[in-house]
Amino acid sequence: MPEHIQARVEACYQQAETFFKRPFPRPQVCFKLRGQKAGVAHLSENKLRFNPQLYRENREDFLKQTVAHEVAHLVAHQLFGPKIQAHGEEWQLIMRGVYELPPHRCHSYAVKRRPVSRFIYLCSCPDGEFPFSAQRHALVSKGRSYYCRRCRKTLVFSGHQRTE
């Protein structure tokens, strides 16, 4: 898997070098990205991170569009400096002119969401049920209080949790 992405990164850089008639330093490429993002360009570090799960599920489009998208961020940064907008006209110029691809800001890959636990807190209102994240529930156990905006009573853990 990494070799296909590495090869596409190199091909994108060669296209940019031919187009702009100048060399670009190659980035560090890693495959430790999870969640909803397909790729991330770390501009000041000259680093690219890719999501291996989304690559496995969307190989063809990922190699064509996502890799070029992230390389275009680094090329735009190196050409035009740090003050340009992430998906502004400079980046769009590279996507259209160099890679001949549509400058889509976001991917449309199906992303499987992990199930999350919700801790149910209650107040005295008739429909006063508040699902808390694990992080917020932990803050309550450390002494933080949360209040209902309607009845102004302290929310109390019901002892129940559910998975969403």
UniProtKB/TrEMBL annotation:
<feature type="domain" description="SprT-like">
    <location>
        <begin position="7"/>
        <end position="158"/>
    </location>
</feature>
<dbReference type="InterPro" id="IPR035240">
    <property type="entry name" value="SprT_Zn_ribbon"/>
</dbReference>
<protein>
    <submittedName>
        <fullName>SprT family zinc-dependent metalloprotease</fullName>
    </submittedName>
</protein>
<dbReference type="GO" id="GO:0008237">
    <property type="term" value="F:metallopeptidase activity"/>
</dbReference>
<dbReference type="InterPro" id="IPR006640">
    <property type="entry name" value="SprT-like_domain"/>
</dbReference>
<dbReference type="GO" id="GO:0006508">
    <property type="term" value="P:proteolysis"/>
</dbReference>
<dbReference type="GO" id="GO:0006950">
    <property type="term" value="P:response to stress"/>
</dbReference>
<dbReference type="Pfam" id="PF10263">
    <property type="entry name" value="SprT-like"/>
</dbReference>
<keyword id="KW-0482">Metalloprotease</keyword>
<keyword id="KW-0378">Hydrolase</keyword>
<keyword id="KW-0645">Protease</keyword>
<dbReference type="Pfam" id="PF17283">
    <property type="entry name" value="Zn_ribbon_SprT"/>
</dbReference>
